[in-house]
Amino acid sequence: MKQIPNLFTLLNLVFGCLAIKAILQPETLFFATGDKGPTTGMIVGSFFLLLAAIVDFLDGFVARLFKATSAMGEQLDSLADAVSFGVAPGMILYRLLETGWAGNTGVNQWWLLPALIFPCAAVWRLAKFNLDKEQRYYFKGIPTPAAGLAVASLPVIAYYGTPAVNAWVFNPVAVYAVILVVSGLMVSNLPIISLKFKAYTLKANTDKLLLVLIAVLSAVFFKWMAVPVVFVAYVIVSLIFKPDRKD
Fold it and tell me: Which residues cross the membrane (predicted)?
């Protein structure tokens, strides 16, 4: 019974692997008009990463349910996150750059390699988290799952968005900016809100409740664009409330 939470955590890894397989499928683009767009595999991969995120969110509850929290489980969680929210989103960025540069003469594989900065930053962030025992009720840097989900939302946003939004998602300059900004936020020491509850008073959870309100309103008004909107709000709310270990 003690291994059930660990097996549940491995589902995160399974979904991450399935996402990578789907993302790297060589398929034609969705848009028959000739406009650059996401492939079926990229969309499927994004939804696999959503499933990985759900499992990642629930595995702590499962561990507490079976009273089987352990150092082994913590390590498995980080290793699974490295694949699902590091490598897999890195492959999405790689495919976005590959599609964005398609047809441009003089562009070779070297122009695609910056996508690998993201998984490197994700693994760095996870290693730092494992070594820093202060990061329980607040984080130093954006958590890897949050960064990975933000990237995973891009193909879906491109598919369901306007032509202008789709063009932005596949603009190599915009993709490079996403890589640098999100990767930089992951490896930074910026105090970031943790969604864990240390106390159950309104005052102690004002930041979390505000973030939930923003998420709900964004989902209603912006649909899939809500993901990057909430990601930006996550950073801004953290800057305003400045969480630290004394919270």
Answer: 43-66, 109-127, 139-161, 173-197, 209-241
